[in-house]
Amino acid sequence: MTDFLHPMMDEHALRQCSALALAHMGDSVYELMTRGWLIASGLVTSRNLHRETIRLVCAGAQAAGAHVIQPMLTEEEQAVFRHGRNAKPKSVPKSSSPTEYALATAVESLFGWLYLRGQYDRLNELFEVILPAAQQWAQQK
Questions:
Q1: Which one is the CATH code of 18-140: 1.10.1520.10, 3.40.50.300, 1.10.3210.10, 3.40.190.10?
Q2: 121 annotated active-site
Q3: pTM for the whole thing?
Q4: Cβ-contact 93, 52 below 8 angstroms
Q5: What is the pLDDT of residues 63-109, one digit of tens each?
Q6: Which of 3, 10, 27, 121 is catalytic?
């Protein structure tokens, strides 16, 4: 049986993925991690969970997190990050600047790439560093 919850891709297949395809996967991984953290932190009402998820998953919060993880990235991770940052999406949401959206796409591309490689420990390590920056950004808004 295929495990769709933990898909694994080899390096050749990953190189064939566009930055936006990786960001598509990474967006859901980042949101799932955020939702898991919120529930584990004791938020239990769906209204509070939804509101906090939106605040922490938006492009501005992810961009804030991007700044703090960049020095931690390996050369290979930096290449994926740059590829995601330089991707050209068809549109940018009104709620974020093009710069914020580019950094958010970079984070999502990196998270998608790490997830599809099965590097869950590294995802957790980076998420723990991103989270305080995202929380701080969200509190200022």
A1: 1.10.1520.10
A2: no
A3: 0.94
A4: no
A5: 999 999 999 999 999 999 999 999 988 778 888 899 999 999 999 99
A6: 27
